Amino acid sequence: MEIKMKIQVLAAAMNQSDHSLIEKMNIRTDAIIGNQCDRNSVEEFQVNGHNIKYLNFNERGVGLNRNNSLIRATGDILLFADEDEVFADNYDSIIKKAYSELPDADAIIFNISTIGRSDGGRINNKIRRIRFYNCFHYGTVRLTVRNDSVTNRNITFHRQFGGGAPYSSGEDSLFIADLLKNRLKVYTYPAVIATVDQTDSSWFKGYTEKYFYDKGAFFSAFPYRCGRLLCTALLLKNRKSMFNSFAELKNGFCAAMKGYKHFRDKLPPTASK
After folding, report:
1. Dihedral sign for Cα atoms in the order 244, 246, 247, 252
2. Rounded distance, CA 266 to CA 109, Å?
3. How far apart are CA 131 and CA 184, in angstroms?
4. pLDDT tens sequence across 130-159
5. Higher local confidence (pLDDT), 24 or 272
6. What gap in Å lies between CA 151 and CA 99, rounded to an integer?
């Protein structure tokens, strides 16, 4: 029996001049569109009986964008999204079914199909618990959470990480890590809820000095004490794909440790490219 619950999409977008995104993303539930642009206004209307709210704010940063939607969310289950995502026709039924099967879940991570990425991203083949050591593989666009579980513990996205922020990525993994730190139960579920176009990454520009510097800062912000160890393990595990020589590995490690220390000591970011 399907549990009665309200699904609400929280989508991060930029420079939307109309409401066409609702149709483009195939949104079939209530939704909040966080539209970072050059104006400040709030629009509320209905589409096919679903409540839609546009938050048009003159600000930048994906963490800030998601937080603005999160604090205004009214749904029982919140589905985070990006503007380049297209939902499956039955995404709401899939999500409700998953939470019916996992009544103790505070958050569930689903599968997505990808365009422009040869490996297709991490695929969940079965239901399993997520722990702190394997929470790095999942982007926000496949994450759902119980509204009460998050808001009752004041869990929000880190504003210093992600697109438009000082550090280029990591807000998604830090959010999941904060869920775990608060003893919430996070599961994977083997069902596809959307397709995402990843042809042009907004943050990955290659294995540059800034990439490794930002990784160091990310692991410094990680809410467990093993951040430095995990950062070192990441570089060693992926050394063949990231580096062409020992000298490159050394430089990457030094940049990561610099970012780690600067974030820990609350110093301003220095790596720019």
Report:
1. positive
2. 32
3. 10
4. 988 788 788 889 999 999 999 999 999 988
5. 24
6. 18
The encoded tokens of residue 259 equal 């970012």
**What is the pTM assigned to this prediction?**
0.85
The two tokens of residue 119 are: 């490996």
Query: Which domains, ranges and CATH numbers included, belong to the chain?
Result: 7-197 (3.90.550.10), 209-264 (no CATH)
- Using a CB cutoff of 8 Å and minimum separation of 24, what contacts does 113-120 make? 113/192, 113/194, 113/195, 113/196, 114/195, 114/196, 114/197, 114/198, 115/195, 115/196, 115/197, 115/198, 115/199, 116/197, 116/198, 116/199, 116/200, 117/198
Residue 43 in tokens? 């629009």
The two tokens of residue 165 are 């922020």
